[in-house]
Amino acid sequence: MALVEYQVIQACQQGDLAQFGLLYDKYIKKIYDFIYFKTHHKETAQDLTSIVFVKAMQKINTFDNKSNFSAWLYRIARNTVIDHFRVLKKDKNIDDIWDLADNSDIAQDIDIKNKLAEVKKYLKNLKSDQRDIVIMRLWQNMSYAEIAQTLGKSEDSCKMSFSRTIKNLRGEFILAMLVLFITR
To answer: Are 102 and 48 in contact (CB under 8 A)?
Structure first.
């Protein structure tokens, strides 16, 4: 953790919550993107992102400065999304929340829709932990240490899972391209 971030967190823990704005500014886009990818709904992602930062500010005193703040914040975000869908979709598997989108507000750009559909096609077959590792690593640019802390797994386990998952996805993608080429 950077010295400035550490100092800001300490100031917040000592009651100077005005400093929390610096943490908010640094992480708002990353947390919003993470939540949007799981919900695919702009307003829901905005609402849940706000809830995440309120929870983080309220619980800042529980943060251990020896830990990684980013991983702590992502863990709050992940749990907030799970709680959201637990309330809305009691009959759905909580591990599959990444795909419970409200299609009324998916990005309007057709290219983004097509790319998202293609990505979802490959990700839907993954276990939830594998999917989260891929999303955090590729789209959130998180380190393996941050991912491990967020998911409560070992760093080596996350590396191995990511490596195996990407290898399998590459194989599926190559097979899909081959089938597409043959059927044209």
So the answer is: no
Residue (of 69, 40, 66, 68) closest to 52 by Cα position: 69
CA-to-CA distance for 100 and 164, rounded, in angstroms?
A: 25
Are the beta carbons of 60 and 132 closer than 8 angstroms? no
- DSSP letter (8 states) at residue 126: S
CATH number, span 1-106: 1.10.1740.10
Q: What are the domain boundaries of the chain? A: 1-106, 108-184
Q: Which residues are within 8 A (CB) of 15 and not within 5 positions of it... i.e. 6 or more apart?
A: none
Q: In the block, which residue shows the tokens 């594998």? A: 130
Please tell me the distance from the alpha carbon of residue 72 to that of residue 172, in angstroms, as a whole number.
33
Conformation bin of residue 102: beta by default, left when phi > 0, alpha when psi is -120 to 50: beta
Q: What is the pLDDT of residues 42-91, one digit of tens each?
A: 899 999 999 999 999 999 999 987 788 998 999 999 999 999 988 876 55
CATH class of 108-184: mainly alpha
User: What is d(CA 130, CA 115) in angstroms, rounded to the nearest whole number?
Assistant: 20
Residue 162: partners with Cβ closer than 8 Å, 6 or more residues away: 133, 134, 137, 144
